[in-house]
Design a protein that fits this description.
Helix content is 28%, strand content 15%. With 439 residues, it is an alpha/beta fold. It has an eight-stranded mixed β-sheet with strand order 3-2-1-4-5-6-17-18, with helices on both faces. Strands 8-9-7-12-13-16-14-15 form an eight-stranded mixed β-sheet. A two-stranded antiparallel sheet has the order 10-11.
């Protein structure tokens, strides 16, 4: 028997407009798999309620009759219902303090929590995600921030014609606008103060590829990190904008210099390495951070790096687009995450204080936490296309049996943070972060 599946409205963040399942995919699941799906009414979802009703789906105020609830972001504590199965990005696997009360409440109510982030294969590779949409939106916003920062310094520049990603009707419109800026740069060049313009991209995965897809709409040449530190690279570059992509081997060195960098060793024993990224900062106008980071790894940018860089006159570096957005993580000057209506702040390098906007003595920090929602229809369509394949198993499972007997594919079972009110064996460690019961 297929359980009723609910698509919940996103009510944790004012700007969250994405949907876990788009109308066409939900319609297909009802027709082809016989899954009853109910959509919770939402005034802001990128796919309007009417698009779901046109697809033959009931749109209701409540999901009371649904036992499996599909969402995206964290769920408010007072929304959780007893004995239900919630599938969403819980942001709890690192013991995040802000979300521990939510998880505790889910446990108290006997809920099952399945986290998209932990739907992984046998090699621990994520199987469901928003692809490169964080990178796409993040680079658009970073270029927008750079254009505004330069304009605030009195430097007239073509990048100031780029708007924030959330203001475009579609990704296609955004790309066309940036291509237009690229043509203007080809014709007229860039101001001498920022020519050639150097953009560093840290990381080379999905997010980085999305960021580079946007950057490459402009007239760009690529050089290596080693080239950036050498003499004469400016004479060799063929375009007004230079891209530098950084991998792990560029950002750290072994404490014991007798051995060469080894990626496997770095992942397993990062304590044997120290960060050296500060050497690149004086050469970059824009740094876009796309790396995965955990506290065991050296930081990419430390506060001391920035206080040294900004000690005298305005350095080359104007903007850090922290797409990764780990607060005080790989970029230590990311002291808070932002939302699209107030996306940037300046990190005052001398004091560590921040001010909204683009003016100040320090880098502009672009640290929007929910970047894919700035391209809500396209990113939802991508995500829904992957999630669609998991929904039949989620709807068919019997959540009353013991965990060992639960009939779910292995990737979904790996993602069960809590089952019927108890942390599962793989996630018992989260218990030490939990507050006391809310009952």
């Amino acid at each position: 028997m297929m359980r009723n599946v609910g698509i919940r409205r996103e009510d944790m963040y004012a700007w969250e407009r994405r949907a876990p399942l788009i109308p066409q995919d939900a319609e297909d699941l009802v027709r082809d798999a016989g899954i009853p799906i109910v959509v919770q009414r939402s005034p802001k979802r990128a796919f309007a309620d009417g698009e779901y009703t046109a697809a033959g789906l009931p749109v209701e105020d409540s999901l009371e009759g649904c036992s499996v609830i599909l969402g995206l972001k964290e769920i408010p504590i007072d929304v959780l219902e007893r004995d239900k199965t919630y599938v969403f990005f819980s942001h709890t696997i690192k013991g995040q303090p802000a979300n521990m009360p939510m998880l505790q409440r889910a446990l108290d109510l006997g809920c099952t929590v399945i986290d998209y982030e932990r739907i992984v294969d046998e090699h621990n590779r994520r199987l469901i995600f928003f692809g490169n949409y964080a990178g796409l939106a993040g680079m658009i916003d970073s270029l927008w921030a750079l254009g505004n920062r330069l304009a605030s310094e009195g430097i007239d520049n073509p990048l100031s014609a780029i708007r924030q990603a959330s203001t475009y009707e579609s990704l296609r419109e955004a790309k066309e606008a940036i291509q237009g800026v690229g043509e203007a740069i080809r014709r007229n060049g860039l101001p001498k103060e920022v020519s050639p313009l150097v953009v560093g991209v840290a990381g080379y995965g999905n997010v980085s590829r999305g960021a580079q897809e946007i950057l490459d709409l402009l007239p760009v040449s690529e050089i290596s990190p080693a080239d950036l530190l050498s003499n004469g690279w400016m004479e060799r570059t063929e375009q007004p904008i230079v891209k530098v992509v950084f991998k792990e081997e560029d950002t750290v060195v072994r404490l014991d210099p007798s051995g060469a960098f080894d990626l496997s060793e770095y992942y397993e024993h990062p304590e044997r390495y120290r960060g050296v990224f500060a050497q690149y900062l004086p050469h970059l106008h824009l740094l876009v951070n796309c790396i995965y980071w955990e506290p065991k790894y050296p930081r990419l940018v430390q506060r001391d790096d920035l206080s040294t860089l900004y000690a005298d006159e305005q350095p080359t570096l104007r903007v850090i687009g922290d797409i990764t957005c780990d607060v005080e993580g790989s970029i230590e000057s990311t002291v808070k995450a932002t939302e699209p209506d107030d996306p940037v702040y300046v990190f005052e390098a001398a004091t560590g204080q921040i001010r909204s906007g683009v003016e100040g003595n320090g880098p502009v920090m672009m640290a929007v936490e929910i970047l894919p929602t700035e391209l809500p229809r396209e990113s939802s369509t991508y995500f829904s296309g992957i999630l669609k394949g998991f929904v039949p198993a989620l709807a068919a499972a019997d959540y009353t049996v013991e965990l060992e007997l639960l009939d779910l594919p292995a990737p979904l079972k790996r993602a069960i943070i809590a089952y019927r009110g108890e942390l599962t064996p793989a996630y018992q460690y989260i218990g030490r972060f939990l507050p006391s019961s809310t009952e």
